[in-house]
């Protein structure tokens, strides 16, 4: 793993995973990540206590080397000028360490919030508008991303435009990343074989677009529960798996990408605790309840697509993901302070 303690390929980790009522814990987690020599810390933005701008500002002042990435935010949840302003302020405060991760999410979420849904065309155009604003250009735009008669940022810092990373699962999103983005963030609970297939799609699109080989950095998210008691391991891995698989459409996409039959999704969603839950289960259920629901998942759906057990076993899993084409692993589920055994 890249960093002060090892010369192997790079790793990063999520801070504030899951539901959080006290975001102040991010300070200690960010410091722990830097001590371990992690390359990047990632924040999964969540409305309430995980606002991207506030967290990045805080973390930038207690670290000096680790990169700070949003993984992910959404283009349509902020006006383009506000998003670019946030990013360049983060660049100024961090000395150029910010990475913008964006994704599409689910159309139902945006309809419920009264915001426009994303299309492939709007995502590409949002990224272009973002980069132009960060370069200090004046932007006039009318198209899939909206109508913006005249946009410009003033007083920009002497810092580069942040890399823009697209979170993607399906082939269309992966192709989009290969053609237009600086990186792609692959979803948790993909097997190494699924990652290898996804990387091939990105590299083919990268090549077809005439971009230099390796232009797109491949970030592979791996849920990790290293050296934990069985009940805690299940809480980290199983409970998180439920939050992804139970969402209609989303679970099917993950199963298809891994080459699995979608039949277990019906069994999962018919669990009594999931009755009448329309959105993400972890916004309603406790961790203990999620663990109970996780018991109906096939063992392969977590065992083949996560890193659990001893540090040595987890290291072997990481090696398989790197062999599949990962440029950087993004460790999820366990906070940086619990990753010590992996770096010992």
Automatic annotation (TrEMBL):
Keyword Zinc applies: no
Residues in Luciferase-like domain copies: 21-327
InterPro entries noted in UniProt: F420-G6PD/mer (IPR050564), F420_OxRdatse_MSMEG2249_pred (IPR022378), Luciferase-like_dom (IPR011251), Luciferase-like_sf (IPR036661)
Keyword terms: Oxidoreductase
Gene Ontology molecular-function annotations: oxidoreductase activity, acting on paired donors, with incorporation or reduction of molecular oxygen
The protein, known as: TIGR03857 family LLM class F420-dependent oxidoreductase
UniProt lineage: Bacteria, Bacillati, Actinomycetota, Actinomycetes, Mycobacteriales
């Amino acid at each position: 793993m890249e960093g002060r303690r090892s010369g192997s390929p790079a790793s990063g980790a999520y801070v504030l995973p899951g539901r959080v009522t006290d975001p102040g814990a991010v300070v200690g987690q960010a410091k722990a990540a830097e001590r371990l020599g992690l390359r990047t810390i990632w924040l999964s933005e969540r409305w309430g206590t995980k606002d991207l701008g506030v967290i990045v500002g805080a973390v930038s002042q207690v670290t000096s080397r680790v990169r700070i990435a949003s993984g992910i935010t959404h283009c349509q949840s902020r006006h383009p000028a506000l998003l670019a302003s946030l990013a360049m302020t983060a660049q100024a405060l961090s000395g150029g360490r910010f990475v913008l991760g964006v994704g599409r999410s689910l159309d139902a979420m945006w309809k419920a919030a009264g915001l426009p849904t994303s299309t492939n065309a709007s995502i590409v155009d949002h990224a272009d508008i973002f980069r132009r604003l960060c370069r200090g250009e004046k932007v006039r735009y009318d198209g899939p991303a909206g109508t913006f008669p005249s946009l410009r940022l003033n007083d920009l810092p002497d810092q580069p435009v942040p890399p823009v990373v697209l979170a993607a699962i399906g082939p269309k999103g992966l192709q989009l990343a290969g053609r237009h983005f600086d990186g792609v963030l692959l979803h948790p609970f993909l097997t190494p074989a699924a990652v290898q297939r996804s990387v091939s799609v990105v590299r083919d699109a990268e090549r077809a677009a005439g971009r230099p080989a390796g232009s797109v950095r491949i970030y592979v998210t791996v849920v990790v529960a290293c050296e934990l008691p069985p009940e805690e391991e299940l809480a980290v891995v199983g409970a998180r798996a439920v939050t992804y698989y139970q969402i209609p459409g989303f679970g099917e996409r993950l199963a298809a990408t891994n080459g699995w039959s979608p039949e277990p999704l019906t069994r999962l969603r018919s669990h009594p605790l999931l009755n009448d839950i329309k959105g993400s289960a972890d916004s309603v259920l406790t961790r203990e309840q999620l663990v109970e629901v996780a018991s109906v998942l096939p063992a392969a759906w977590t065992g083949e697509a996560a890193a659990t057990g001893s540090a040595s076993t987890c290291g072997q899993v990481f090696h398989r993901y790197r062999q599949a084409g990962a440029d950087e692993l993004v460790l999820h589920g366990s906070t940086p302070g619990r990753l010590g055994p992996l770096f010992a």
